[in-house]
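name: query_chain
kind: protein
chains: 1
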Amino acid sequence: METHRTHVEDAPTEKARIVIVGGGLAGLLLGYVVAAACRESVSVTLIERALPETPEASLDTRATAISRESKALLESWELWQEVSAGAQPIEDIHVSRSARFGSATLRDPLQDLEPMGWVIENSVLQQTLISSGAVQGVTLLEGAEVVEFSATGDRPVLTLDTGDALAADLVVIADGAHSSLRSALGIGAVHHSPSQFAIAVNCETEAGANGVAYERFTPEGPLALLPIPNTSSTRARYNVIWCAHKERQMELLALSDDDFIEALQAEFGWRAGKIERVGRRTGWPLGRVAARELVRSRCVLLGNSAHTLHPVAGQGFNLSLRDVERLATLISSEVESPTPFDSVERLSVFADMSRGDHEQTIGATSLLAEMLDSPSMLIDSVASVALSALDLSNGVKRGVAQFGMGKR
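structure:
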């Protein structure tokens, strides 16, 4: 991927100019998909202040859960083959509650020839998207930052910290939950202050890999263990997302590795075996954000700029993949028109196509997170009974599992 750090030339071109601000997974993916589908009709430039560095230690990587529907999309974009070697299948999902009776194992008995999902390290996805984008002609401006954004003229103009400027036919805003470009457009967002805070860490256990993902509900929030590949041994490795209240999170982040392992083992139990090693811990607040609008004149919101979800069901990136498909389809249609991207009404088709999916996914994950955050005695009792009943009902389990696999 061509990389510039200081100078940007806005050369005359007959191609429609698409500028993506934000080099996270959603922005990188859209850049590749659009360039691959419309290379003769568009030029794609991606601006990213600082791409995450690839971690040197295998226990310091971060990972993303991929649903069956998302895997099918990656296949259609000819990306799955590039990342599948580093994808850990999820054969079953075990759901339990801390210090309470009731548990369930989710699987899809009607389609058991394929895993329920996969876990892929973010560094694998990132490097694949960067290299694949390069092949398709995406220009990556790494180390550049937008310091001024004007969308009041005929074309949006982005001024970089180098003093150079880019004019665009379409700006895709993917610069995160606290998007400065979203604010510059005057687009409001619904913010839910965090009652929970997350810790992400990888761990290795003495047990062998079994393809099971674990979701354990604690009094302060969910604790998830997602299996990740381990190329150095047959022992199981997991990407751990531990949600707790702020005081507890701060305590856990301050512990030594040995004390953290002891706390994690006590909270999670022994289903995955004895926890022997952990990697570097990171923490962040689990506030939720939903933009009030997705489209303005020649501007579209994508990824965390549009919606930031609680990680309780691992749906955030999968929702963004579906958004990428919808937006790429719209862009492919627009570049065939005599004046692409000049109609807010046509761009709003993306928002119309996305609305139901956003409402369903955000609503379901938010409700689950709120119900299980210091639940009442009634909810506490009902949840345990519901988990026990869930383990006995194949029909209900199938529906829950299919939601997790991305089926809508």
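note: The first helix runs from residue 25 to 38.
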